[in-house]
Amino acid sequence: MSSQKQTVIITGGNSGLGYECAKQIAKYDNNFYIILACRNAAKAQQAVSSLIQETKNNNITSMELDLSSLESVRNFIGNLSEMDYPPLYALVCNAGVQFIDDTHYTKDGFEITFGVNHLGHFLLANMLLEQITPGGRIVIVSSGTHDPLKKTGMPEPIFVNPQQLAVPEPTGTNEAISLIGRRRYTTSKLCNLYFTYELARRIKQQTDKKITVNAFDPGMMPGTGLAQSYTPVMKFVWNYVLPVLTLFYPNVNTVRQSGSALANLVTDSKLDQTTAKYFEGKKQIKSSELSYNNENWSSLWKASVEMSKLTQAETILKV
């Protein structure tokens, strides 16, 4: 346990996996000061109240952050630097969306799954690097659905070029929308791994801060808010039928199990030197063969710098 106060930022921490992760970290050590970075200020405030009640740790607060707006990310960084929080130890990039009803866009005109799940976090992490203490941690929530060999029931990711992901061709028929939406999700989760590995590589080569960057697969967590754009029948299955599978199937988890494993990546001292790795729950495993394509790492990085208009003044890495 740490003797000095340190800050942990969790994106999308007001419900589901992020909430449970916040709860476990707050219970683990009340020297951790937790910021829930959320789009919905009212829901975030409710989450803060119930977390304080559940954990008896008063060092929990929330700040507004909309990952679908690059301006909001920059405002968040500006607001954070004006606050007097303890030194920043960890960033948990947890927030994620999936839409299977239509193509939605961010405020900057990018397809929203790519925009929120990857691009918003790309900008956020880069802009926070200067504030993260030496030996601090970044954890990026990916998903086993990025790996075609996992047979998750999701369509395999297709990464051609980042521009196509960010501004896709118009989609045709309605029945294709569900498939396309789910594929955008799995591809965004592959992007999370490309980002993890490239960020870890650049931090190691270009800084002496020894910040670790690891990716996490929470497994399938039925009942969470990821099914918000599903049809009523699919929602029913997701919320009431699939949770039963947590009793029988490997890597189908309750939110509590996954939240605890995610918190462990922030708190476990055995992981002080561990970077550029992928965890399924608490177990370190290999990610998909696709995910080790370092040409894709750098093409995604380069495109993300351009799309987010990341400047040299905003990051400690070479732009």
Give a brief outline of the structure.
By secondary structure, the protein is α/β, with parallel strands linked by helices.
Describe this structure in words.
The structure is a single chain. The chain has 319 residues and is an alpha/beta fold. The chain is 42% helix and 14% strand. It has an 8-stranded mixed beta sheet, with helices on both faces. A hairpin with a 2-residue loop joins strand 7 and strand 8 (283-285). It is globular. The mean pLDDT is 91.
Provide the gyration radius in Å: 18 Å
Instruction: Output mean pLDDT.
Output: 91
Strand order of the largest sheet: 3-2-1-4-5-6-7-8
Q: Helix and strand string, N-terminal first?
A: EHEHEHEHEHHEHHEEH
| Topology, number of strands | 8
Could you give a short account of the major beta sheet? 8 strands, mixed
Structural class: alpha/beta
Poorly predicted sequence stretches spanning 5 or more consecutive residues: none
Q: What separation lies between the terminal Cα atoms?
A: 36 Å
Number of helices: 9
Helix content: 40-55%
Shape: globular
Beta-strand content: 5-15%
